Amino acid sequence: MSRLQLADSGLTLSGGDYTIVGVVAVVAIIALAIAFVLRKEVLAAGQGTPKMQDIAKAVQEGAAAYLNRQFRTLAIFVVIVFVLLFFLPADSIGERIGRSVFFIIGAVFSAAIGYLGMWLSTRANLRVAAAANESEGGREKAMRVAFRTGGVVGMSTVGLGLLGASLVVLSFAGQAPKVLEGFGFGAALLAMFMRVGGGIFTKAADVGADLVGKVEQNIPEDDPRNAATIADNVGDNVGDCAGMAADLFESYSVTLVAALILGSVAFGSQGLLFPLIVPAIGVLTAVIGVYITKARPGENGLSAINRSFYISAVISAVLCTIAAFAYLPSTFAKLNHGISDGGNPALIAAVAVIIGIVLAAIILWLTGYFTGTEHKPVKTVGETSLTGAATVILSGISVGFESAVYTAIVIGAAVYGAFLLSGSVAVALFAVALAGTGLLTTVGVIVAMDTFGPVSDNAQGIAEMSGEVSEDGAKILTELDAVGNTTKAITKGIAIATAVLAATALFGSYVNGAGLDVVASNVNAAFAVFTPSTLVGLIIGAAVVFMFSGLAINAVTRAAGAIVFEVRRQFRDNPGIMDGTVRPEYGKVVDICTRDSLRELATPGLLAILAPIAVGFGLGVGPLAGYLAGAIATGTLMAVFLANSGGAWDNAKKLVEDGNHGGKGSDAHAATVIGDTVGDPFKDTAGPAINPLMKVMNLVSVLIAPAIVALAAPDAPQAIRIVISIAAVVVIIAAVVVSKRRSTSIADSPAETVANGVG
Amino acid sequence: MSRLQLADSGLTLSGGDYTIVGVVAVVAIIALAIAFVLRKEVLAAGQGTPKMQDIAKAVQEGAAAYLNRQFRTLAIFVVIVFVLLFFLPADSIGERIGRSVFFIIGAVFSAAIGYLGMWLSTRANLRVAAAANESEGGREKAMRVAFRTGGVVGMSTVGLGLLGASLVVLSFAGQAPKVLEGFGFGAALLAMFMRVGGGIFTKAADVGADLVGKVEQNIPEDDPRNAATIADNVGDNVGDCAGMAADLFESYSVTLVAALILGSVAFGSQGLLFPLIVPAIGVLTAVIGVYITKARPGENGLSAINRSFYISAVISAVLCTIAAFAYLPSTFAKLNHGISDGGNPALIAAVAVIIGIVLAAIILWLTGYFTGTEHKPVKTVGETSLTGAATVILSGISVGFESAVYTAIVIGAAVYGAFLLSGSVAVALFAVALAGTGLLTTVGVIVAMDTFGPVSDNAQGIAEMSGEVSEDGAKILTELDAVGNTTKAITKGIAIATAVLAATALFGSYVNGAGLDVVASNVNAAFAVFTPSTLVGLIIGAAVVFMFSGLAINAVTRAAGAIVFEVRRQFRDNPGIMDGTVRPEYGKVVDICTRDSLRELATPGLLAILAPIAVGFGLGVGPLAGYLAGAIATGTLMAVFLANSGGAWDNAKKLVEDGNHGGKGSDAHAATVIGDTVGDPFKDTAGPAINPLMKVMNLVSVLIAPAIVALAAPDAPQAIRIVISIAAVVVIIAAVVVSKRRSTSIADSPAETVANGVG
């Protein structure tokens, strides 16, 4: 078993190799061009009445203002990390500069894709509402615009991800791995902040709007008299659209980065290029997927989307297999690298990619089963509404736990299956990463599916607020919204799977980079892995996931309290609002959401970056490996649990609203509304943020591992190590204390007592 | 670094050694004698009115009937395991027989202590109610009887645990470690079943009684017209008393077992004896603790209990330090064993024990902070009741997450602190185990504190049902009940800490036993720990904790549904019940609870035993190590999360009932009632069962490790390994499917629609 050499592999690319990377870069640019074409198509659609346009404009301005302010805040942060990255060990000055520069590029790409998602969806929502309002073929047109919007974001995500990675390989060749770490870290870090910030914004606005509107004043959702209603719609765009797009871009990039890092070790230069070929094929099939999605007459929108997913997955599998056998040799002896393995590289690569594609399909099905209204789990949660909110909560938690277990085991089986493909650890790790790239081939369609959700949701909001959409049009939008709910849950499942595969591959590269793979002369380091100190690291890793989730949920409760206070104030100070004679100050609520989200994202963000630093420098590389393993295992379960119990509650509410168990207004409905409100921060704030969290923590560990090893050497000044660790702990504690000192809860601003339900 | 030799250490005990063990055995018997004396005192107290005695008798009969039936069911199981244990590898026939026989003894002791806890508390509850009813000094008398009852159970727990361990050492000397594995496994296995079965019984009865009584019929808790009310009181005794007593006995035994297993390796024969001396000192201080507990006039009961805890903890620390320096030498050279370490054995041992004692004190404080009514967390949960049930649930979950993180980090710090005491891994592991024995010195008082809870709860039930306790008496009982709520939460925190320390020590011995500590010649095994396959094991380990929790919560919901159905039937078929002219058929409900609890405990129980078998034989010893590590980390967090969020909800309800935020009957009250109902299966079924779960899984792994290693050898028939693994998986799946097929939820038997709250 050879020690993986992750630093400069001394690899040089041939002219033919450069041609291939060049072709991949061109494919990436084609993807961006297609996105541009689709974008024109979306923008060309009709924009409805002036009142609808007015509302959309308010949402556009609010969302843009939030993201601009968020980017300004994060810019300072990005610059600090840029400088810090410079001081971490590297093999050459070129690598050092490349790593920092591509960190910025990764962050900028991530931000750009998020901004694009927000920009387009705040324009598409209006057009979907207008299309649904058309008397002839409204349903098909609305669905088409919504899905095309998703197509733009999807093609841009894969295009930018592939472009970034191929640029790194073109510019740095053998030094690419270290530079790619910077690129992936930039993408993951920004995505995490956008997920957390956007997630807090969207749910604070949603919960706050519902608490005052639905519960206290008894006015419907999206009623224009509610001052928080624009903020609620802005939230959908900055959270579900911008945050999600950045998140999936990050998943795409980091998985690709992991594959590229491990590929050259396992397969030589062909291992560096094959992981680029697979997603390039994915671009092609994504285009097919986006263009063939068309609901047959009377068919459910979800069936149409699922069909194109499965078709493009099958095409991907076939093409990737052909590519593997065409490009890779049938024995390892023919690869230009140091690993000897009895297997067939082409076969290993093909099977690994197929494992990833099959995994995506299983998760699609599994998530649909646990969160769809037509299956037993959600039906059971719906039934328990007859015995009240407590049983709704308990059954939803059970569904979440159970689905998390099955999803985790399926992901684990995929990892294990890929790992079993080779007896050589280097090749096996690469196979895991390749399974990740297999998953990537589906990302284009997945992003398109996901964007569908918030766009439909917002279209419904605009229709409701303007009051200018016909009853038929409203019905169409309700149907699309329900489809969007399920696709959103599916995306989260896929995102978590990419997170585990990428994290596992990165974990492998961390372990090897940190010298934990133990050569015979180094029994002490080996032992470190089994000792209680590693277990302590593991417990801390698992604890950080709990802490992060708790902080995110708490932040939503706190921010929602501020919204409640402001909306109540407006109703009180300005009775004309309730009469409909005075327009509420929407902007004020958007401002509060913006301010609070940006303030609240600091603590979980710092925790994610500093906790691995504290553990790594304080306890050593062995416990840091334990830390990562603990975070991956608990993170996977927690992320799926939060996403799926939230999805199940949401759809159980829909079941009741569709007339089951007493329908709208019944006690059963009130019980499911409570379940849904509990699920809101679960599924849209804490749950999805765990995905980038896992990757940020892994990449921080990979980046600092050489520094830890250097400082742990007997002749190094031990004090520095301890000082760094203590400083990190102090900053974390300070951040937690500061966020606790803030106005603590909704209860700090109760103007009146509020009843049970919160919508 | 020497390879730990856990099999027959070839250790022989000297005559002086035997004298010491003999003295320890005598101390154990003295503890039992004191328990007997205290028991007489409790039974001598006044028994109240004939009506009160009638009710108590019904509870006594129901509880005895349940436990008898449970023991009959489990007996078959115990016999099967007894036989299976015989076939696992052992070094000699004596060890083989000893392991199986002491497995039975461990199981019988565990059952006996549980039975005793139930037997006495079903008699003490009546006497506490009667004492509270006395006009003169009722409060002091009631508290005294309740705490003396706890003393009986506490002294019996430590007495039997110490007796069992010292008997093994007396009989098997150097072969003791393997035999102790059997003893610990028996204790842990039975405790797990009693925790799960009792936990399901008590919460099914509680939730079922409240759903029909409080919510549908609007009659108070413990109203004699409710057919489930006797079952509810039976549940307190079989769950909170019997289950908890068995659980703490198991914690005591397994921690002791871990210390004894590791002690001889680290310190030679003195290492085998010192872990017996520490808890023997604990017996002495527990006696002091029990006898000095007396509330000063006007003082809160909890302060009195806390005071005796702290006093006895300080005495323990002092005496243990003296014992360490008196008994252990100051250099390792003077110990009769093979380890060379520059440290001072006496100092290491003393500090390790003190770490354990300090850990107990910190957890006592931490749990009190997060679940006590006078601190910020519970107050915040109470305040969020103003904005409805959803915010109550969210804030309770946040409190649970947060407290889990701090508790896990404190426990992790204790493990790390103990581990740092020596550079030698063998000594460091022993130090972790010794910290566990330090915790044990507090167990006597802790059990006494815990038993206090259900006894007071039941006394209140008897007072309410009989209607023959004065208003002053009722007030006293309410106060005692509230104190009991907090002491119950504290016990769970301490139990989880012992679980982690014991599991870490056992994990260490597993890793070494399985040959994973890697000698230079065995790099493959070393690598196994870092590979994705270990990570997959880790994910599965974490997943099993989620699965187990979900199964337990689901079982309660299912069983509660059956109770609801039966109570409704009785009200419907027999209108005289509501008038109070006809006595409801209490026995029927007890029977249903008994049947369902015994049926429901099979699936989680099988999961706990078979999952490590499936992973170990299927994936190998490396992934099994990962499995255990994942289960320990996630289990710790999950157990504390479930216990403390449940505790916080319970006390938030009490806060509102005490007149805050609108008081009883307000919307805020209804919101906290929902929180409390969600918390019921969290804190009393799923949460506490994770503690024995962790130890059962660890002991199964330790026991099967040699068999896995033997079957993984190249010349062994690989098919056997795979067949065993697949068989285990098949049984688990079958068990899960069978339990899913059962009447699925409360909603299957709704006679009428029920409103939001469930008490």
From TrEMBL, chains A, B:
Report quaternary structure and partners.
Homodimer.
Q: Which GO terms describe its molecular function?
A: diphosphate hydrolysis-driven proton transmembrane transporter activity; inorganic diphosphate phosphatase activity; magnesium ion binding
Query: Which keywords, in A-to-Z order, does the entry hold?
Result: Cell membrane, Hydrogen ion transport, Hydrolase, Ion transport, Magnesium, Membrane, Translocase, Transmembrane, Transmembrane helix, Transport
Q: What is its main location?
A: membrane
Gene name as annotated: hppA
**Role description:** Proton pump that utilizes the energy of pyrophosphate hydrolysis as the driving force for proton movement across the membrane. Generates a proton motive force.
List, separated by semicolons, the cofactors it needs.
Answer: Mg(2+)
What reaction does this catalyse?
diphosphate + H2O + H(+)(in) = 2 phosphate + 2 H(+)(out)
What are its E.C. numbers?
7.1.3.1
Q: Spell out the subcellular localization from the entry.
A: Cell membrane; Endomembrane system
InterPro entries in the cross-refs: PPase-energised_H-pump (IPR004131)
Its GO CC terms? Answer: endomembrane system; plasma membrane
The way this protein sits in the membrane is described as: Multi-pass membrane protein
Q: Per its record, how is this protein called by name?
A: K(+)-insensitive pyrophosphate-energized proton pump
Site entry: Determinant of potassium independence = K488
Q: Which residue ranges traverse the bilayer?
A: 20-38, 71-88, 100-120, 149-173, 179-196, 249-267, 273-292, 304-327, 347-371, 392-419, 425-448, 494-513, 525-548, 601-619, 625-644, 696-713, 719-738
> What is this enzyme's class at the first EC digit?
translocase
The entry's family comment says: Belongs to the H(+)-translocating pyrophosphatase (TC 3.A.10) family. K(+)-insensitive subfamily.
Domain of life, per UniProt, equals Bacteria
